[in-house]
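Handout for the seminar on molecular recognition.
Each group receives one record of this type.
Step one: identify the two inputs.
Step two: read the structure output and locate the region that could contact pyridoxal-5'-phosphate.
Step three: write two sentences on what you found, then compare them with the reference statements printed after the record.
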Amino acid sequence: MALKPQPGIMDVSPYVGGESKVEGVDRICRLASNENPLGASDAAKTAYRGIVDNLHRYPDGGSYLLRNGIAEAEGLVAEQIVCGAGSDELLALLIRSYVGIGDEIVYNEHGFLMYPIGAKTAGAVPVKAAEKDLRIDVDAMLGAVTDKTKIMFLANPNNPTGSYITEKELRYLRENLNEDVLLVIDAAYCEYVDSPDYISGAEMVEEFGNVVMTRTFSKIHGLASLRLGWAYCPPEVADVLNRVRGPFNVSLAAQAAGVAAIKDKAHIERSRELNARLLGWFCQQVTELGLETRMSVANFVLLDFKAAEKAAAALEFLKQRGILVRGMGAYGLPGFLRISIGTDEEMRAVVENLTVFVNGS
Ligand SMILES: *Cc1c(COP(=O)(O)O)cnc(C)c1O
């Protein structure tokens, strides 16, 4: 008798994160995982150090101080916030709670890989909705819904494309969605967006019973290693997640650092400004080199090499020079590379090396 995992699990290709090491190269620019190049805020680091004498204690299972800190900083209702070990955990818990064997989830063509992976682990079918010019097409998303659909996932702004849909499009999507389908808006990069027609979706959570917004401390807050995220939910959904999550799913270190990070508005602002300035500068530089970029509102940008071999050669060329960026084959975009926005020095290094790559000397 052989052990047999649940249906769907063996169909999953395990998620492969961005690379972090190159053999024989000491100084590495890590531009493959959209991390904050400034690191965490000093206040968060101090809070992290401050818990060392309580390592033997269980954390607060309800993440009370953290939820209240988030609610105050973002103007939200603390009772509707559920914290998790990264937003990845919350996305997985939503699937576990609402999606079963034979059900379907809908996601956008170049959406975050954790949505189809999560669906498959539940024995469900991930249904991909075509994008238009690397941007979510809300009509295609609605067209992909069937009576088996339980969750519609979208990242806004989207990773890896860097594009976003407007408040109008988001509301149109919700309005035309059956009330028994959950709309999950993954707003991991929302802090970087500076467009008047963009909303994170928090206000829609408060207006409707079938909208959830997820957020992360891994990106602008620079706490990816601690694994911390949160979901803003209608009260009924928060109640469900609080039943299925582990009782101590968020570590004490993550709670302490998270409270400090969300209050450190200066660090958030510094991170946002650095990103906006370097995103603009980098796109201009590579455009002058004759490379094509896609418009991005986040902390990364797609470079279009037009051919898979060319993109692979550029990836390897940069890697040999200590610069790690992300290949896009797994996202169905093999002719592209995704480059996270790093520090001034790092972005200058990328431009210098791409100049050599393009000019061939
Ligand atoms: C990085 C990222 C996240 C964050 O995941 P965590 O588990 O919170 O680190 C979520 N969604 C998208 C689209 C991302 O790119």
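Reference statements: The pocket of pyridoxal-5'-phosphate is lined by residues 34, 86-88, 112, 155, 159, 186, 188, 216, 218-219, 224, 229 (CB under 6 Å). The mean pLDDT is 96.
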